[in-house]
Specification:
The protein has 317 residues and is an alpha/beta fold. Helix content is 45%, strand content 14%. It has a six-stranded mixed beta sheet with strand order 1-2-10-7-8-9, with helices on both faces. Strands 5-4-3-6 form a four-stranded parallel beta sheet, with helices on both faces. The longest helix is centred in the middle third of the chain and has 17 residues. The protein is globular.
Amino acid sequence: MEVTLADLRAAAGRVVGVAVRSALVDLPALGAVAGVPVGLKCENEQPTGAFKLRGAYNAVARMVERGETAGVVTHSSGNHAQAVAFAASRLGLRAVVVMPESAPAIKADGVRRYGGEVVFAGRVRSSEQHERAEAIAAAEGLVMVSSFDHPDVVAGQGTIGLEILEQRPDVGTILVPVSGGGLLAGICVAIQALAPHVEVLGVEPAGAAKLSAALAAGEPRTLAHTESMADGLLMRSVGRFTFPILRRTVRRAIQVGEDEIAAAVRWLHREAGITAEPSGAVTTAALLAGKARPSGPTVAVVSGGNVDPALFHRLTA
């Protein structure tokens, strides 16, 4: 199934009043480092603190339109979990979220705050959460909501691409954090339809370089292990659905190290007053470290700001 420009525009209509039209903030200091004008697309401004709300709400709203109202289940280490709980609450549905025991407490607490039920399975991010969620779905008649590998989720995330093109019509390069690829694929749909000349780059932790592996192989590859403070980018493979979409536009993935991510979180806090979680700071890290060298006006997506307070203090002190 393809995701079209019409799907993105329909999703944009569904999320009105739920997701905010996040600011695109010009940062001359970051532009001075990059050598081109740079703006940050601040998805940390969303009610749930991250971009995931767009895709989750679009997917759950589409389920309601189809009459699937028993409730939803998902598995996630955090931002998608909170987004699904928020969306289900807004639409009057039950939500069960399976999380690894290592999920940041701030994200598990967020799920509960939005009315979701948290089930822990496994110590770290692994297939164990997916298997538990599938079992719950089958036993309790709930519908699974993918965190990235579904057309309705991709369409919802793609609304960010529409907004970027409206807010910065002269954009030449867009930097996007990547885990499973839902955000990256959604933005690519907008770019393919409306501005195919724009360069789109995926940015990932060096310890979770699943997009690099997929681009090299020409298909998704599952990494044996992923590790990074960027806990939202630890998927071991990009999606089977998302990869064919994003590969039409994305030619290169940029890897950033842990010290570079930490420096970006600190820089955003001190220089721009932006609270970004490590996953959301990787695009800024790529620019500060000189690993992204855009040739024209650039937008870096700050995908979220749900950072553990103790970690944020250590990184910014």
